[in-house]
Amino acid sequence: MQDVISFGRQAAQQVDNTLQDLMPLTDKEEMELGAKSSQLILASHRKWDSPDTEARLQRLADPLLERRKRQNIQYTIGLLDEPDINAYALPGGRLFFNRGLIEFAPSDAELQFVIAHEIGHVDLKHCARSYTHAVQAGKLGGQPVEIAVLLLHNQYELAFSEENEFEKLFSNGEKLRHTLRLRG
Asked: DSSP string covering 50-110, please?
């Protein structure tokens, strides 16, 4: 039975990969989606106004952004006044960092690793993949179809999120190692 389930998961992932290749979001669509998602985040979370912290994160992100694959994506950094130790990557290069993370990981090296991790989500299109089918379906059937497809795809994608994490960690670890070698 486990072999049948494993085969089914592999087949579903292959179909998803094929559809993602055939009808990907354009960079413009992804950035528009990121802007909308960013507005939703800011509507439900308090923004943390700390120009020094924002400048520090941007300084740490810059050498990593120079090495990203997707140069057309314009990244932005936002701060949330949340105590949780967390960071978020949204489609289109929107990165958010919680105050709790900044307080917990005060060294530049620790923060740069987290930034690289979040850049990896965007650079490897993990953020956009969740929305591709929904946006494309919405073009044909409107917002109700878009929402239904998004909910279905999110349930399906839970099975592959761990694989994405490993792919991203490997990719970002290589980028960070290279960046640190350039500095040292």
From this structure: -HHHHHHHHHHHHHHHHT-S-TT---EEEEE---S--EEEEGGGEEEEEHHHHHH--SHHH
Query: What would the mean pLDDT of 20-28 be, rounded to a whole number?
Result: 78
Residue 107 token pair: 């060294």
Q: Whole-angstrom Cα distance, residue 57 to residue 102?
A: 10
The residue written with tokens 């878009």 in the block is: 146
Give the SS3 label for residue 77. Answer: strand
Q: Is the pLDDT of residue 58 over 70?
A: yes
pLDDT of residue 33: 83
DSSP letters for 13-47: HHHHHHHHHHSPPPHHHHHHHHHHHHHHHHHHS-B
Q: Give CA–CA dist 3/18, Å, rounded.
A: 22
Residue with tokens 């998004």: 150
What is the pTM (predicted TM-score) of this model? 0.72
